[in-house]
TrEMBL record:
Originating organism: Centaurea solstitialis (yellow star-thistle)
Family per record: Belongs to the glycosyltransferase 8 family.
Pathway linked to the protein: Glycan metabolism; pectin biosynthesis
Protein name listed in UniProt: Hexosyltransferase
GO MF term list: polygalacturonate 4-alpha-galacturonosyltransferase activity
Listed PANTHER family: GALACTURONOSYLTRANSFERASE 4-RELATED, HEXOSYLTRANSFERASE
Residue runs in coiled coils: 179-206
UniProt lineage: Eukaryota, Viridiplantae, Streptophyta, Embryophyta, Tracheophyta
Swiss-Prot/TrEMBL keywords: Cell wall biogenesis/degradation, Coiled coil, Glycosyltransferase, Golgi apparatus, Transferase
Gene Ontology BP terms: cell wall organization
Gene3D superfamilies hit by this protein: Spore Coat Polysaccharide Biosynthesis Protein SpsA, Chain A
Endpoints of the signal sequence: none
Length: 550
């Protein structure tokens, strides 16, 4: 369209070419035709060019023929020079150079704006980061600091795990090689297993592997001194490479997906059985260690009991007995047959108390340890605190006609459950949890906590302590805790599954399933605050009896 109309203009008045179209317009047309293709001449006559096409100083056409001729000669000379130099690109005209300068200027302006915006954004982000950093507690030190060296590498046992994985696969292939009578490969795997085990040792992290060095130094042989350098005889990387090559060889000769899977499953089941067995042994031995009395105090209870009953009756009484029923003081209940354990609880509480003279300890023991418990605290009184020891067998109201659990504890089936333990002969045998088969649960001391209002009818609040705790701070603040009408205040010990009801109750029984939530959280009896008035109002002991009878 542009070319045809241009020809019409030329053919209309060929003799007046210079007056119809000047040289600058021709240059603009040529430049834009080269860049963008043919253009219409009408757009130039209507002065409808964009800003980038307008050249300052060229708005008014110049009709000077001499100037045009001079520019034409310069242009022709430039073209000839470029052609002589072997270049084929077109000559930059003033209009084209002007447009290019305008484009470059616009790009620079746009780039400057973007850089300025980026700087503003960076400044805003930095200010926000500074504000956030003010809320960070920089006083956290020690192993919790993320800047410590031991936290530089998260995977500190990568090499150790690789060696162990190789050893597992070596055992699998060794077993398969033995089954297929490939004794040579089985022997190689066995030897390499020993080397890997020797290199690994008891290391649990990669850092432990670098400490296994031979001690070096100078030694004297035949009048000559020799130096023994530090040499790592258990080069783990070399063992890994050697084991990798051997496993690759074993895979080529023996690999059978079904057989390897079966071997790994068998190894997993065997490991699970070993873990369960070790857990049972650990539970039994920990209970044995907790109950074992050192040789030096084997006869402690007996000697204390003899000394107590040799005392005249007037010397068997504790001082400050008037505090025993004073509700304005801090009262503790402790039921135990362990003299030393009870002493630790009482003394640690008194040592950390701000006002020890306001603390009253109510101890209850059985008839076997009653004399020893009294004699110990007569010889070792707890400072200004008040203490009183009672015998659970002297509570005449606590009998089998009133207490259903007492009838159960006296039954032959219950005694057989706790003492015979299914007649197992090994530590790890038996499916029952040894923790709950402890004969101490046959003692009424373990169930007396459900009768606190009956034992202490004139008190309105009491703090129950178990005999396996050590008090480390003043406990008087617990008496100021508002229980909100609840009977018991305790420390919640629930984890993912620990101490939840489904671990204690048989929810296959529909009656239990209807009345209890399996995900409800239990609590620890180590330290409990009891509101005895609310206990009596809600008849907690009666509810306990109901479930014992059921």
């Amino acid at each position: 369209m542009g070319i045809s109309r241009l020809h019409l203009e030329f053919s209309f008045d060929p003799n007046d070419f210079s007056t119809t179209i000047n040289k600058e317009v021709i240059d603009v047309i040529k430049a834009n035709t080269d860049d963008l293709g043919p253009l219409s001449l009408d757009s130039f006559r209507k002065n409808n060019l964009s800003v980038s096409w307008k050249v300052p100083g060229l708005e008014n056409p110049i009709d000077d023929d001499s100037t045009s001729a001079e520019k034409k000669r310069i242009t022709i000379a430039k073209q000839e020079k470029i052609l002589d130099a072997g270049h084929s690109q077109s000559v930059d005209t003033p209009a084209k150079l002007a447009r290019r300068q305008l484009r470059d200027k616009r790009r620079e302006t746009r780039a400057a704006d973007l850089v300025k915006k980026d700087d503003d954004v960076i400044i805003k982000l930095e200010n926000a980061a500074i504000e956030r950093s003010k809320s960070v507690d920089s006083a956290v030190l020690g192993k919790y600091s993320i800047w410590r060296k031991e936290n530089d590498n998260e995977n500190t046992d990568t090499t150790v795990r690789l060696v162990r994985d190789q050893m597992i696969m070596a055992r699998v292939y060794k077993s398969i090689a033995t089954m297929k009578n490939n004794t040579q490969l089985a022997r190689e795997l066995q030897n390499q297993l020993k080397e890997s085990q020797r290199a690994l040792g008891d290391a649990t992290a990669d850092a432990d592997l670098n400490r296994r060095w031979v001690v070096g130094g100078w030694f004297f042989v035949d009048c000559l001194y020799f130096q023994l350098f530090y040499v790592n005889i258990y080069s783990v990387p070399e063992k890994i490479k050697a084991m990798g090559k051997l496993l690759s060889k074993a895979k080529d000769q023996l690999y059978d997906c079904k057989m390897v899977t079966g071997k790994l499953r068998a190894m997993l089941q065997s490991a699970d059985e070993q873990v369960r067995s070790l857990k049972k042994q650990s539970t039994f031995l920990s209970q044995l260690a907790a109950k074992t009395i050192p040789n030096g105090i084997h006869c402690l209870s007996m000697r204390l009991t003899i000394d107590y009953y040799l005392l005249p009756p007037e010397k068997r009484k504790f001082p400050r007995s008037e505090n025993l029923e004073n509700p304005s003081l801090y009262h503790y209940a402790l039921f135990s047959d362990n003299v030393l354990a009870a002493s630790v609880v009482v003394n640690s509480t008194v040592m950390n108390a701000k006002e020890p003279e306001k603390h009253v300890f109510h101890l209850v023991s059985d008839k076997l340890n009653f004399g020893a418990m009294n004699m110990w605290f007569l010889l070792n009184p707890p400072g200004k605190a008040t203490i009183h020891v009672e015998n659970v067998d002297e509570f005449k109201w606590l009998n089998s006609s009133y207490c259903p659990v007492l009838r159960q504890l006296e039954s032959a089936a219950m005694k057989e459950y706790y003492f015979k333990s299914d007649h197992q002969t090994t530590l790890s045998a038996g499916s029952s949890n040894l923790k709950y088969r402890n004969p101490k649960y046959l003692s009424m001391l373990n169930h007396l906590r459900f009768y606190l209002p009956q034992v202490y009818p004139k008190l309105n609040k009491i703090l129950f302590l178990d005999d396996d705790i050590v008090v480390q701070k003043d406990l008087t603040g617990l008496w100021r805790v508002d229980l909100g009408g609840k009977v018991n205040g305790a420390v919640e010990t629930c984890g993912e599954s620990f101490h939840r009801f489904d671990k204690y109750l048989n929810f296959s029984n529909p009656h239990i399933a209807r009345n209890f939530d399996p995900n409800a959280c239990g609590w620890a009896y180590g330290m409990n605050v009891f509101d005895l008035e609310e206990w009596t109002k809600k008849d907690i002991t009666g509810i306990y009896h109901k479930w014992q009878i059921w």
